[in-house]
Amino acid sequence: MRKIEHIGIAVKDLNASNAIFEKLFGTPAYKMEEVGSEGVRTSFFKSGPNKIELLEATRPDSPIAKYLEKKGEGIHHIAFEVEDIHSEIARLKGEGFIVLNETPKKGADNKLVAFLHPKTSNGVLVELCQEAPAE
After folding, report:
1. How far is CA 38 from CA 54, 96, 105, 107, 128, in A?
2. Which residue of 15, 73, 82, 115 could cross-link 88, Cys pair, CB 3.0 to 4.6 Å?
3. CA of 3: how far to CAs of 13, 19, 82, in Å?
4. What is the pLDDT along the chain (135 residues), one digit of tens a residue?
5. CB contact at 8 A, 45 and 29
Protein backbone atom coordinates (compact mmCIF):
# COMPACT_ATOMS: atom_id res chain seq x y z
CA MET A 1 0.00 0.00 0.00
CA ARG A 2 1.54 3.23 -1.18
CA LYS A 3 -0.45 5.86 0.71
CA ILE A 4 -3.88 6.85 1.94
CA GLU A 5 -5.66 7.71 -1.31
CA HIS A 6 -8.73 9.28 0.30
CA ILE A 7 -11.13 9.18 3.22
CA GLY A 8 -14.78 8.52 2.33
CA ILE A 9 -17.54 10.26 4.29
CA ALA A 10 -21.18 9.20 3.99
CA VAL A 11 -23.58 12.16 3.83
CA LYS A 12 -27.36 12.51 3.57
CA ASP A 13 -27.34 15.60 1.34
CA LEU A 14 -24.38 16.04 -1.00
CA ASN A 15 -25.19 19.65 -1.91
CA ALA A 16 -25.48 20.75 1.73
CA SER A 17 -22.33 18.83 2.64
CA ASN A 18 -20.43 20.32 -0.31
CA ALA A 19 -21.25 23.78 1.07
CA ILE A 20 -19.88 22.79 4.50
CA PHE A 21 -16.67 21.29 3.13
CA GLU A 22 -16.18 24.22 0.73
CA LYS A 23 -16.18 26.52 3.78
CA LEU A 24 -13.90 24.11 5.67
CA PHE A 25 -11.28 23.86 2.91
CA GLY A 26 -11.81 27.29 1.35
CA THR A 27 -12.25 25.75 -2.09
CA PRO A 28 -15.05 24.01 -3.99
CA ALA A 29 -15.12 20.30 -4.82
CA TYR A 30 -12.78 19.63 -7.71
CA LYS A 31 -14.85 16.74 -9.06
CA MET A 32 -18.40 15.41 -8.82
CA GLU A 33 -19.70 12.22 -10.39
CA GLU A 34 -22.30 9.51 -10.09
CA VAL A 35 -21.44 5.81 -9.95
CA GLY A 36 -24.72 4.26 -11.02
CA SER A 37 -23.65 0.68 -10.33
CA GLU A 38 -23.11 1.59 -6.66
CA GLY A 39 -26.10 3.92 -6.31
CA VAL A 40 -23.93 6.82 -5.18
CA ARG A 41 -23.15 10.42 -6.06
CA THR A 42 -19.72 11.63 -5.01
CA SER A 43 -17.72 14.80 -4.71
CA PHE A 44 -14.00 15.17 -4.03
CA PHE A 45 -12.10 17.83 -2.12
CA LYS A 46 -8.35 18.29 -1.75
CA SER A 47 -6.46 19.61 1.24
CA GLY A 48 -2.77 19.62 0.41
CA PRO A 49 -1.97 16.10 -0.80
CA ASN A 50 -5.04 14.66 0.95
CA LYS A 51 -8.42 13.87 -0.61
CA ILE A 52 -11.87 13.64 0.96
CA GLU A 53 -14.70 11.89 -0.88
CA LEU A 54 -18.29 12.70 0.10
CA LEU A 55 -20.81 9.97 -0.75
CA GLU A 56 -24.59 10.39 -1.10
CA ALA A 57 -26.97 7.50 -1.84
CA THR A 58 -29.00 7.77 -5.04
CA ARG A 59 -31.26 4.81 -4.24
CA PRO A 60 -32.54 3.28 -0.99
CA ASP A 61 -30.92 -0.14 -1.53
CA SER A 62 -27.39 1.21 -2.10
CA PRO A 63 -24.55 0.43 0.34
CA ILE A 64 -24.36 4.11 1.35
CA ALA A 65 -28.12 4.29 2.05
CA LYS A 66 -27.84 1.19 4.24
CA TYR A 67 -24.81 2.65 6.04
CA LEU A 68 -26.59 5.96 6.70
CA GLU A 69 -29.66 4.15 8.01
CA LYS A 70 -27.57 2.06 10.40
CA LYS A 71 -24.85 4.49 11.50
CA GLY A 72 -25.73 7.98 10.28
CA GLU A 73 -23.38 10.43 8.62
CA GLY A 74 -19.66 10.12 9.16
CA ILE A 75 -16.49 8.38 8.06
CA HIS A 76 -17.45 5.45 5.87
CA HIS A 77 -14.09 4.10 4.65
CA ILE A 78 -10.40 4.73 4.25
CA ALA A 79 -8.90 4.09 0.83
CA PHE A 80 -5.34 3.04 0.15
CA GLU A 81 -3.60 3.41 -3.19
CA VAL A 82 -2.04 0.17 -4.40
CA GLU A 83 0.27 -0.49 -7.31
CA ASP A 84 -1.31 -3.80 -8.40
CA ILE A 85 -4.81 -4.33 -7.04
CA HIS A 86 -4.99 -7.96 -8.19
CA SER A 87 -1.82 -9.01 -6.37
CA GLU A 88 -2.83 -6.97 -3.30
CA ILE A 89 -6.22 -8.75 -3.17
CA ALA A 90 -4.44 -12.12 -3.36
CA ARG A 91 -1.92 -11.10 -0.68
CA LEU A 92 -4.58 -9.87 1.73
CA LYS A 93 -6.75 -12.97 1.20
CA GLY A 94 -3.66 -15.03 2.04
CA GLU A 95 -3.26 -12.98 5.23
CA GLY A 96 -6.81 -13.91 6.28
CA PHE A 97 -8.73 -10.76 5.32
CA ILE A 98 -12.22 -11.14 3.87
CA VAL A 99 -12.23 -9.46 0.48
CA LEU A 100 -15.67 -8.22 -0.56
CA ASN A 101 -14.71 -7.81 -4.23
CA GLU A 102 -12.39 -10.54 -5.45
CA THR A 103 -12.57 -8.93 -8.88
CA PRO A 104 -11.95 -5.16 -8.77
CA LYS A 105 -14.81 -2.98 -9.97
CA LYS A 106 -14.98 0.49 -11.47
CA GLY A 107 -15.21 3.16 -8.78
CA ALA A 108 -15.27 6.95 -8.74
CA ASP A 109 -12.35 9.14 -9.81
CA ASN A 110 -11.19 6.70 -12.54
CA LYS A 111 -10.23 3.97 -10.06
CA LEU A 112 -10.46 0.21 -9.89
CA VAL A 113 -11.59 -0.64 -6.36
CA ALA A 114 -12.05 -3.54 -3.98
CA PHE A 115 -13.09 -3.55 -0.33
CA LEU A 116 -12.08 -5.53 2.75
CA HIS A 117 -14.80 -6.56 5.19
CA PRO A 118 -14.60 -4.38 8.33
CA LYS A 119 -14.86 -7.37 10.65
CA THR A 120 -11.35 -8.39 9.57
CA SER A 121 -9.85 -4.90 9.90
CA ASN A 122 -10.91 -3.73 13.36
CA GLY A 123 -14.25 -2.34 12.22
CA VAL A 124 -12.78 -0.18 9.44
CA LEU A 125 -14.03 -0.58 5.87
CA VAL A 126 -10.81 -0.57 3.83
CA GLU A 127 -10.85 0.27 0.13
CA LEU A 128 -8.01 -0.68 -2.18
CA CYS A 129 -7.76 1.52 -5.25
CA GLN A 130 -5.63 1.65 -8.35
CA GLU A 131 -5.78 4.06 -11.26
CA ALA A 132 -7.89 2.40 -13.99
CA PRO A 133 -6.06 1.68 -17.24
CA ALA A 134 -6.96 3.87 -20.22
CA GLU A 135 -9.74 2.38 -22.30
Report:
1. 14, 26, 10, 8, 16
2. 82
3. 29, 27, 8
4. 889 999 999 999 999 999 999 999 999 999 999 999 999 999 999 998 999 999 999 999 999 999 999 999 999 999 999 999 999 999 999 999 999 998 999 999 999 999 999 999 999 999 999 999 876
5. yes
